Amino acid sequence: MAVVAGPGAAVAGQPAEPLPEASRLAIERLVQTQSRGLPGEISLQLLAARNLPPCDAPEAFLAPGTELRGRISIGLRCVSPAPWKRFVQAYVGVQGRYYVAAQPIEAGQPLGPADISERRGDLAALPRSVVTDPSALHGVVSANRIAAGAPLRKELLRGTVVIQQGQTVKVVAQGAGFSVSTEGRAMTRAEVGATVQAKTRDGRLVSGIADQEGQIRLAQ
Fold first, then answer.
1. Which of 70, 94, 193, 198 is deepest in the core (most CB within 10 A)?
2. Cα 11 from Cα 47, distance rounded (Å)
């Protein structure tokens, strides 16, 4: 995680002071812990705070519901030598890859490789629903018209329906060194990648994932 100290910010018309090292380290530890699993490289910019009281061991925290991206408030609390609580303004950047429309995409158009372009940038400055995983673009169509260069967002896409309710489908189970298939009747319609149930000829109810060929692949 890259940590950048921001310029001093005036608070209530008075000059700001840099964060004490112990408070800065507490915030960095919190962000490192909370950012595990985020899709990208995390950067932290701390804005200077004014007149933080002394503290032997400051503890950083996030208010409930705070998402670790963009401009946020990070709390600091202290027990000794005197209890206090303050909030520090920070900016958490998330540098990572995302996907945009390489050319205009019409509503209802299936997306192919020529329609998708990879970019890198600050995900915190983009809509939260922007697509960062290329697998989310397999077997989808555009729900609306998408302009060239526009970020591909999940609400602008929908899966291709490959199985209809009541349809006879192939149910496949695969494992190390074996592949078994049978026929079943789909209980619901399903898009590519969706979980769907089917009733086999012997009356068993099975559940699996709809693939691009319109088959149901059982989880192993």
1. 198
2. 11
What is the reported pLDDT for 47?
Answer: 77
In degrees, to the nearest 5, what angle opens at C-alpha 136 toward C-alphas 152 and 177? 160
Q: How many angstroms separate the CA atoms of 69 and 40, rounded?
A: 11
Q: 């303050």: which residue's tokens?
A: 86
Q: Return the structure tokens found at 53.
A: 């009281």
pTM above 0.85, yes or no: no
Whole-angstrom distance, CA of residue 72 vs CA of residue 87: 10
Segment 48-86, tens digit of pLDDT: 666 789 999 999 999 998 988 999 999 999 999 999 999
Cα(182)–Cα(73) distance, rounded to whole angstroms?
A: 56
**Contact between 71 and 37 (Cβ < 8 Å):** no
Q: In Å, what is the CA distance from 210 to each residue of 34, 79, 99, 112?
A: 34, 55, 24, 19
> How many alpha carbons lie under 13 Å from residue 57 in its C-beta half-sphere?
1
Question: Rounded to an integer, what is the distance from CA 15 to the centroid of its chain?
Answer: 38
